[in-house]
Amino acid sequence: MKKIIIRKTEEMENWRRNINSEINFIPTMGNLHNGHIKLISTAKKDNSNANLVSIFINPLQFDNKIDLENYPKTIDNDIKISFANGADAIFIPSIEDIYPPNNENIKFLKAPLELSSSLCGLNRIGHFDGVCTVVYRLLSLINPKNLYLGEKDWQQLLILKNLVLTKKLNIAIKSIPTQRDFDGIPLSSRNVHLSKKERKLIRFFSNELLEAKKIFQQEKKFCLTEILKKLSAEKISIEYLEHLHPHTLQKAKSEDNISLLAGAIRCGETRLIDHVFLMKRKPIIAIDGPAGSGKSTVTKLIAKKLKLLYLDTGAMYRALSWLLIKENIDYTKEKILQNILKNISIVFKSNDNSHQDVFINNNCVTKEIRSQEISSIVSKISSIKEVRKFLVEEQRKIGESGGLVAEGRDIGTTVFPYAELKIFLTASIDERAKRRKSDKNSKDSQNIELDTLKELIKKRDFEDSNREISPLVKANDAIEIITDKYSIDEVVDKIIDLYNDKIPKDTQI
Ligand code: PAF
């Protein structure tokens, strides 16, 4: 693709019409640093769309005239950097192009108060309204497929996600983690203004936040007033330092697994922001759904792509059913069952190709547990109170430090009710029966008539949904995906997008 600099909105419309591809859009205000480079190169790596970088210092988002005048301008270098790192086009409009006088079509937007009135919104009156206005204007002109933004401006990112949602724009927002300099301070265009002394102060501030993150990881707590004291002792002028829920920006609660510690300080004329995410354990994805909804295939692929542990809770119920049948145990007798459960060990082992075997009391039963014999009994066994209690505890032990994707029927409701992302996968009975029939892992299912399979699936659904303990139900906060019309890859990508939307990239590293 021919590299091009676009300055006028008409040229943008022309370019848009003539390129034969979707657009990745990276909006900037120039003075590009490694954070911007990471955005451009990530977009380049992600897909083969055209990469468009915009450079526009938006006067509407400055509440202070001097700040606007002093904002660093390095346009020639920015052009070089953008092209060198994967930009196909650079849009450098004038103020008149973005805000043509007397143009009634320009919409001046207001950022939602619940996200914009705290943190940076407290002192920068109108700032987020200006950001929303310019980004909406740019998106309307460019109509990109993907919008790339940095997590460094976390509050801005939340507000722009909200903008895309409320304006029903068909644009995916991709974010990159905060990029830090060698000394820990976040990269920012404003850093060039820092004197040696000011840089030392911001380094102290950032390192305090990074230290709090480390302490929180080990001790699951930290002391905000202690940090405030230390900052005051260094005579650092603090605008705010808050511990909040990362999405609602309301005060953090003790049950929040991931929370946001965000602050802003003033160093001379320069105002700098930084934040860290505090995390008690790594994130958990819960995928529930009925038999044949595609749970296993999808969950395995997600585990592989996101490098998470794969917890197949259904395999645990099946393995236990296998043992009870093989050893001819009368599992209807409470005492007998309790004694057996005391000596059960279920372990998953993966090989290099990420194939996972399940072992019960050292017997590898990966294949055996997929037989029709087990399929027909597992629902009954898994409805026994002692069995459920035992296996839910085992599953929680495996998930103690998080970093896993678990599939089952009660993951989001019972096993991990605090999972960061809950998915309820389902499909029509017809589709699920077809999938079971072509399941290479289940020879038995392949030999059963389609109509019989449908009846078996209906029976299983009924048993699972009507059992007394942990019935198969969609958790209130689960996102339902009906998979009939989607390919496996489409479902996987959709779930990964949802995960990336919920979980800051910084906590995924
Ligand atoms: O983050 C920024 O650089 C700006 O706020 C943005 C998104 C380019 C809008 O002017």
Describe the structure.
The protein has 509 residues and is α/β, with parallel strands linked by helices. It contains 21 helices and 17 strands. A six-stranded parallel beta sheet has the order 1-4-3-2-5-6, with helices on both faces. Strands 11-15-10-16-17 form a five-stranded parallel beta sheet. It has a three-stranded antiparallel beta sheet with strand order 7-8-9, with helices on one face. Helix 12 packs across helix 21. The longest helix is centred in the middle third of the chain and has 24 residues. The chain is globular, with a radius of gyration of 27 Å. The mean pLDDT is 93. Bound molecules: pantoate. The site of pantoate has 10 residues, from strand 2 and helix 8.
At a glance:
With 509 residues, the protein is of the alpha/beta class. It is built from 21 helices and 17 strands.
Give a topology summary:
Elements: E1 4-6, H1 9-18, E2 23-28, H2 34-46, E3 50-55, H3 65-70, H4 75-84, E4 89-91, H5 95-98, H6 113-116, H7 120-123, H8 127-142, E5 146-150, H9 154-166, E6 172-176, H10 196-219, H11 224-233, E7 237-244, E8 258-267, E9 270-279, E10 284-288, H12 295-306, E11 309-312, H13 313-326, H14 334-342, E12 346-350, E13 356-360, E14 363-364, H15 372-381, H16 385-398, E15 404-408, H17 411-415, E16 421-426, H18 429-437, H19 443-446, H20 450-466, E17 479-482, H21 488-502
Helix pairs in contact: 8-9, 12-21, 13-15, 18-20
Bound molecules: pantoate.
Pantoate is lined by residues 27-29, 58, 61, 131, 134-135, 153, 156.
